[in-house]
Specification:
This protein has helices spanning 9-34, 96-105, 119-132, and strands at residues 41-45, 50-55, 58-72, 77-80, 114-116, 137-143, 146-157. By secondary structure, it is of the alpha+beta class.
């Protein structure tokens, strides 16, 4: 690889493959360990970069979120969160590490502010970001024609009065 000036596709494929395996195992562990299946509700806030899960109106788990990026379905584009000036600083977390990783390793999709929407490429970008950020899991939500993609960190059971 040429110190960030060239793109080593086989290197990208290796990073994506390792990130996929890591994300699969961590996601499954997060869901199983914390009971995040079935009749679970959640609420997230970009202002304080928090997500809270509840069941039957009672919060049972909270964590920190980092927004990775968003997809505009109407424009068919992906935008990295670090390139989105409208986001609160708290929700950006350490997202600059993902851009720096892409620059250092010559993986252009990571330092580009955005790209044309391709579900497979978005999945690759999400999983690599989760790996670089050492996330416990990934989360996505949709509002109108926008998909929002987050990593999950620092999960903790809630105690009475936390939320």
């Amino acid at each position: 690889m040429e110190n960030g000036t060239g793109h080593d596709h086989s290197g990208w494929e290796e990073v994506v493959g390792a990130a996929r395996e890591r994300a699969r195992s961590r996601q499954a562990l997060m869901i199983e360990r914390h009971g995040l299946s079935g009749d679970v509700q959640y609420h997230w806030s970009m202002d304080d970069a928090r997500i809270t899960w509840s069941r039957n109106g009672t919060a049972f788990l909270t964590g920190r979120i980092t927004m990775i990026g968003s997809v505009s379905l109407s424009h068919e584009t992906w935008l990295w969160s670090w390139a989105n000036d409208s986001l609160p600083p708290a929700v950006l977390g350490d997202i600059d590490r993902v851009r720096a990783f892409g620059e250092a390793n010559g993986f252009p999709v990571l330092p580009w502010p955005g790209f044309d929407y391709d579900p497979a490429l978005v999945a690759e970008a999400r999983t690599v970001a989760a790996s670089v950020l050492d996330a416990e899991g990934l989360w996505a939500d949709s509002t109108d024609d926008v998909q929002l993609h987050f990593t999950i960190h620092d999960l903790k059971p809630t105690v009475a009065g936390d939320c």
